[in-house]
Amino acid sequence: MSKKSRCFNTLFLIAGVLCLLFYLGQGITVRFGQSLLWLWPLAGCAFLARYFLWKRAWRQGKRAPVPRWLVIAVRVCVLCGLAAVAFVESYILSAAFRPAPDGLDAIVILGARVEEDGPSGSLSERIWAAADYLRRNPDTVAVASGGQGSDEPMSEAACIRDHLLAAGIDESRILLEDASTSTFENLSYSFALLGDGVETVGVVTNDFHVYRAVRVAEAMGVYEISGVPARSNIFGFVHYALREFFAVGASLLRGTMALA
Description:
By secondary structure, the protein is of the alpha/beta class. The protein has helices spanning 3-26, 39-59, 68-96, 121-136, 156-166, 183-193, 210-219, 234-254, and strands spanning 106-109, 114-115, 118-119, 141-145, 174-177, 200-206, 224-230. A 5-stranded parallel sheet has the order 5-4-1-6-7. The chain has a two-stranded antiparallel sheet with strand order 2-3. The radius of gyration is 22 Å and the shape is elongated.
């Protein structure tokens, strides 16, 4: 096996180990099966299988001849895919760590899953970020947004409102939008509740989701939009930021957002 081939094959070993380690770390904070978490061990096993099978074939002298054009085509596709991921993720990372400006006229808190015992981890982070922003900006009003799923004990909007009240936010500053079922509906229905005089709006969501949410809001062309990121743990950020790459692609195909 040539030095170049050994180095290339070693990358599969490293990728496989990292995927499995990430899954073990992520499994501590996210239930197995939730949000395609099972893809991480599947990818890890696939990378490791590729590594060991390739290594065994080389040792036994059974390397199958592969047309050069096919090798080049595969490498070009892989490089283009990696470039696309890097390009989109650079926007996601930039938006995730950009601080929210003070003095916004309103904020829209995007809903997330409500469990039987209260808000999910993602929703809790959004509520905490919104409460902190509202305490620092007493003139800002909030829209709690999110409908009720068939397996949720209450609407996401009502859960957000109740926890904001418990955090000391006055009820007169909270508007309720409890009919939406997607990010696009969250924003569209929430904007319809805002009265005259509102010019600047912040979108409160998890850091990995800020880029797409802000771009969807900007595509509506109603207000000047800013992101209000709610921080997430490192495992959740890596997992969902990678998932956002595909969500951004789907939104672009549907025409609900612009890339930049």
